[in-house]
Design a protein that fits this description.
heterotetramer, A mainly alpha (373), B alpha/beta (250), C mainly alpha (339), D mainly alpha (171), B: 250 residues, alpha/beta, five-stranded mixed β-sheet, two-stranded parallel ribbon, elongated, D: 171 residues, mainly alpha, Four Helix Bundle (Hemerythrin (Met), subunit A), 2 domains, 79% helix, globular
Chain lengths: 373, 250, 339, 171
């Protein structure tokens, strides 16, 4: 009798379409959720709404025009994309980038990391209900955008690099402003920590949510803070140092439990490490040329290479094939960290509640411009 | 370097340029000799047969016949993982190449799964992180696609690239069993290149709309999109468009 | 004739209009308070320092088109916002704003009526408010609002139980259900009940937050998850009713809390002799100041705390609030028997 | 005089809503009419100066139980369309017969029920019962009717535990 009574109460699965137009999917991401009551039974992620065919487009652009396209992939961390692309081409053409340019590149990458993490913290906390952190995080991000505007004239799509080095030297007094920003940012991070880290409700909404073990994380291809949150020490800045990271002293924060709270702590600690790197980079800024020996018309020799750097979202890799004759790359491929991190979403949200889905999308820190390319 | 049997109609210059490449030292040389005739689009190419052979705008030199896989310089010591793989899985490694610090192995499609499993389990290799799966299209070559697997080891911190050559409809086994990360990446390769990947849990389009015709990232796919020309015949396209409008209305 | 019909009518009109104006200005106050917490200014454009913003909002909402979604249940769809707003307003009937005042040669008590089951009346009217939210979600005939209305009904019922149990212990100390008598018993006791029943106060505050779908418990209209919850499909005047009803409920909960725990219109420590200078401030002003303080805490909590997840909210309600409330009743019983 | 008119109006409302509950096609409308019916009954209690009972009626019936009915109706309503009047399993004659029997019983109580002489509402207004009916009901409940009160609470407890076992899948 009990089983028959059980059928009587079996509620039908509710299929809910979350996105592509939804306040907390950080862009045009569509998640089809099959709910049993509140619990997510299964889900599948549908992307492609923002596919602009950047890879196909760049096969018809010459090498310097592509820097613009890399800005528009992960529009929240454009400088890192630029640095990644230019370094891949420099590796193809075997150009030696002067030390001063490498130092400025390191500083810009870390500034970009702080800006991207500010946006992540603001939207992640807003999704879980704490509206105030959003405004605080964006106040700091504003300072960074001003620094970038002063350096390369734009606030979002910087076009901040050239193959072989920097487009122009840093403006006078820019480094003092960066150091001043670092001191402000240091105490602001403590302010975020005060608001959220020991907040009972925040703990309850993030501890033990979306747990992924180290093996699962590596297998599914997570990278960056989501991977380090599960305890895997993989950071391209340490494993394959590029720009001037080999001369910088910093440590890589590692989580233990692999849940949303650990990913939050890892990123919060990365704020502080980035400030540390920026200080070393700006204080130790060497004099010297800002561009290496670059031929007027860039034509890398025939060959292909894959070069990965550490973007705020994870490992961004460029696989570029040049045929040595034409001024366009023959094949331009980007390994987007958000695309690979998003792949873990169905596995993470299985068995969680609807409210956790929102927290987990924020915890993976996904930017749809990079996912859809 | 085993020579694959060439189709007779292939442009005559193929073996010549192949021979030229390996002889040259690692320093790059212009691969395609000037005499190459513009590669007429192959009959197999999806482009509408009726389309007149669109001669690429004439100043562009003929597309290269294949990726340059320079053999390792004499002095370079082949890394332990590759030698271990050659020993463990005979015939798995067709060609090893080294270029500006990256090791690449060309693996036949039949041996791909075995090689992949070995590279993941072997202590000398321990490639547990499949960072990227992508493809590149060389229309003038018989086995037109190069499916590229970029592997990384989180423990030993070294990288290697596997390459599998596949013709248009030639099956390439899916490695999502070995590295689940490859699931979406392979779906993208199928979606944008049309490589026939077999044994994939859910091989559907990922970036393009589901009812899209053709594979956009092939070299012979026009940059400005399908337009009426590419459809086998424009009537299908019109019917499709009306059907889609009705779907929106009701 | 004048006493039984005319004066209550004037009082009702006065209280109703005062509440509606207070509710619209609550909207502005909330936006300002949250803005100050978030290092920004809030609405500054309409009128000096944004004072006329509520009027602008009201006009905008009146002029906005009022859409009824296709295949929605028209009658229920229109009735839902009314069912939320009316209970919030009629609760003011029993709330005492002050003792009797001598005006135009007649003693006029500063409350509309004093029903001897005043507190029970408030709780039962609050339970009718649940219908508006449930029917609003169901009638809009779309998935997200339906899910929100299911959540809201479960949340309100479980927190209604918690709040009622908390009030039981308070009634035991006050000795009567009538609101005026509760305030008088606080006067006789010489202490506000917040000091006598601190646990009940905290439970009532948390229960009040949950009853009005506010701050950490605003599951029903969690924008991030349910895209606006039960009033997603509403627009124009009907949305305004839902929106204002939420603030009216907030004022009701604050007013009830002030009457029960902060001694209604009494000055702090009423019969301590040397504190009589506080009597200069008229009694109803004390009531308004205390209610405003309570409302400020509502807004303050909303600005800082993140949101609970739905099942954590239910667990808190059933496994934490209700047991503590019952324990509090038992303790109050023992204390009353011994002393 | 006012009370008499009020009484008739309210009873008409109660009967009207009860009829509507049975006849409307849309189940949610039926539940809503049930709520209005309970509110009208509460109004009747107020008329009889039993404010405590009226408040309890609104709180328990209109505010609690019918909300749960609505909860279930909203979930059930999603799946099956309301079955039409000519559904095979309906037995109209059996229904009318039962209704007739109940009507007869009510009539009997009314005629021979030994109803006391009706108390005119005015004296009810300020009688001891009206002023503090909370205390009186409390006294009555916990002295004369204590055992039925305890039995009823046991019954409710058993019903609750049963419901939980049935509905909750993983215990």
């Amino acid at each position: 009798m009990a089983t028959e009574a059980r059928q009587m109460f079996d509620t039908e699965e509710l299929v809910i379409n979350m996105g592509p137009q939804h306040p907390s999917t950080h862009g045009v991401l569509r998640v089809v959720l099959r709910l049993d009551g509140e619990k997510v039974v299964s889900s599948d992620v549908i992307i492609g709404y923002l596919h602009r065919g950047i890879e196909k487009l760049s096969e018809n652009r010459n090498w310097t025009q592509i820097i613009l396209l890399t800005d528009r992939m992960d529009y929240v961390a454009a400088a890192t994309n630029n640095v990644g692309y230019c370094q891949t081409v420099e590796k193809l053409m075997q150009i030696e980038v002067p030390r001063r340019a490498r130092y400025v590149r390191t500083a810009l990458c870390e500034l970009q990391r702080i800006a991207s993490h500010c946006l992540w913290l603001g939207t992640h906390a807003m999704d879980i209900g704490a509206m105030t952190v959003f405004l605080y995080a964006f106040r700091e991000r504003e300072l960074i955008l001003d620094l970038f505007e002063e350096y390369c004239g734009a606030r979002l799509t910087y076009n901040s690099m050239r193959i072989g080095g920097l487009p122009l030297d840093i403006p006078v007094g820019w480094d003092k402003k960066v150091l001043e920003f670092c001191s402000i940012m240091a105490e602001k991070v403590d302010e975020y920590e005060e608001l959220l880290t020991h907040n009972r409700i925040w703990l309850e909404r993030t501890k033990g949510i979306g747990v992924i073990t180290a093996e699962q994380a590596i297998a599914i291809g997570l990278s960056g803070p989501p991977l380090r949150g599960s305890g895997v020490t993989k950071d391209a800045r340490k494993d394959e140092p590029y720009a001037a990271y080999d001369e910088m002293k910093f440590d890589v924060p590692i989580g233990t439990a692999g849940d949303t709270y650990d990913r939050y702590l890892v990123r919060l600690e990365e704020f502080r490490q980035s400030i540390r790197i920026i200080r070393q980079a700006i204080e130790g800024l060497p004099e010297g040329p800002i561009v290496g020996k670059v031929p007027r018309l860039i034509k890398p020799p025939a060959g292909e290479t894959y070069h990965a750097i550490e973007s705020p979202k994870g490992e961004i890799g460029y696989f570029i094939v040049s045929d040595g004759k034409s001024t366009n790359p023959y094949r331009f491929r980007v390994r987007p960290p958000s695309f690979c991190n998003l792949q873990a979403l169905p596995q993470l949200i299985k068995g969680h509640m609807l409210a956790d889905v929102v927290a987990l999308i924020g915890s993976l820190d996904v930017v749809l411009g990079e996912v859809d390319r | 370097m085993t020579e694959e049997p060439k189709e007779p109609t292939a442009a005559g210059d193929k073996p010549a340029s192949e021979a030229a490449a390996p002889a040259a030292p690692a320093a790059p040389t212009p691969a395609a000799p000037a005499a190459a005739t513009p590669a007429a689009p192959k009959a197999a190419a999806p482009a509408a047969a009726a389309k007149p052979p669109a001669a690429p705008h004439d100043n562009k030199p003929a597309p290269p016949s294949g990726p340059t896989d320079p053999p390792p310089p004499a002095g370079a010591q082949i890394p332990a993982c590759i030698t271990a793989l050659q020993a463990a899985v005979p015939g798995a490694v067709e060609h090893v190449s080294f270029y500006i610090g990256d090791w690449t192995m060309i693996v036949p499609a039949t041996k791909l799964l075995e090689a992949g499993r070995f590279l993941r389990e072997a202590p000398a290799a321990a490639f547990d992180f499949c960072s990227d799966v992508t493809a590149s299209d060389w229309p003038s070559r018989a086995q037109r696609f190069d499916v590229i697997y970029c592997l990384y080891s989180t423990r030993l911190r070294h990288r290697v690239r596997l390459k599998v050559r596949a013709a248009e409809a030639e099956p390439v086994p899916s490695v999502s069993g070995i590295w689940p990360a490859a699931n979406w990446l392979e779906r993208e390769v199928y979606d944008l290149f049309g490589v026939n990947i077999t044994g994939h849990p859910n091989l559907t389009r990922i970036l393009m709309p589901d009812d899209w015709q053709g594979h956009p990232q092939r070299k012979d796919y026009p940059l400005e999109g399908p337009g009426e020309l590419l459809m086998e015949n424009p009537l299908d396209w019109l019917k499709l468009k009306q059907a889609r409008e009705e779907a929106e209305i009701e | 004739m004048i006493d039984t019909y005319f004066i209550p009518l004037v009082k009702i009109l006065f209280v109703l209009n005062a509440t509606l104006i207070a509710v619209t200005y609550m909207v502005l106050l909330e936006r300002k308070v949250i803005a100050w917490v978030q290092v920004r200014l809030g609405p500054m454009r309409v009128g000096p320092y944004g004072i006329l913003q509520p009027i602008a909002d009201a006009v905008k909402l009146i002029l906005k088109e009022d859409i009824t979604p296709a295949r929605a249940d028209k009658w229920v769809f229109t009735a839902a916002p009314i069912l939320v707003m009316v209970p919030a307003l009629i609760t003011f009937a029993v709330i005492p704003f002050g003792p009797s005042v001598h005006l135009f040669g007649r003693d006029i008590p500063l409350y509309i009526t004093d029903v001897n089951v005043g507190l029970l009346y408030i709780v039962s009217v609050a339970s009718i408010g649940v219908y508006g939210i449930i029917l609003g979600g169901w009638a809009s005939n779309s998935k997200f609002p339906l899910l929100a209305s299911l959540r809201a009904s479960a949340q309100l019922i479980s927190y209604e139980v918690a709040v009622t149990m908390t009030l039981v212990s308070l009634i035991m100390t006050a000795g009567s259900l009538s609101m005026v008598k509760i305030v008088e018993s606080q006067f006789n006791a010489g202490l506000w009940f917040i000091f006598v029943q601190p646990v009940a106060f905290v439970l009532f505050f948390i229960g009040g937050l949950a009853e009005t779908n506010r701050a950490p418990f605003d599951m029903a209209e969690a924008e991030q998850e349910l895209t606006g919850g039960f009033h997603t499909e509403y627009s124009g005047m009907r949305f305004a009713l839902f929106f204002l009803a939420e603030y009216a409920n907030m004022i009701v909960v604050s007013a009830v809390a002030t009457t029960l725990f902060l001694g209604g219109w009494l000055a702090p420590f009423p019969n301590v002799a040397w504190l009589n200078v506080l009597e200069l401030i008229p009694s109803w002003m004390w009531f308004l100041m205390k209610t405003f303080a309570f409302l400020y805490v509502f807004l303050w909590v909303r600005a800082t705390l993140p949101r609970y997840r739905y099942d954590q909210l239910m667990r808190l309600g059933w496994k934490v609030l209700i047991p503590i409330a019952i324990a509090n009743v038992v303790v109050t019983g023992i204390v009353k028997v011994l002393f | 005089m006012g009370n008499a008119i009020a009484f008739y109006v309210i009873s008409a409302l109660i009967l009207g809503f009860a009829m509507l509950v049975v006849t409307t096609k849309n189940t949610v409308h039926a539940v809503l009419f049930l709520v209005l019916n309970f509110l009208a009954v509460a109004a009747l209690y107020v008329l009889l100066t039993a404010q405590f009972l009226a408040a309890i009626q609104v709180l328990v019936y209109a505010g609690g139980i019918v909300v749960l009915y609505l909860f279930v109706v909203m979930l059930v309503n999603l799946k099956r369309p309301p079955e039409d009047h000519s559904a095979p399993q309906r037995r109209p004659w059996l229904g009318f017969a039962l209704a007739g029997v109940v009507l007869a019983q009510l009539g009997a109580i009314l005629v021979w029920g030994g109803a006391g002489d009706p108390v005119d509402p005015h004296t009810m207004q300020n009688s001891d019962l009206a002023l503090n009916n909370v205390e009186r009901i409390g006294m009555l409940l916990y002295t004369d009717y204590f055992i039925p009160f305890e039995v009823a609470s046991m019954l409710l407890l058993v019903a609750m535990v049963g419901a939980i076992i049935l509905a909750k899948r993983e215990l």
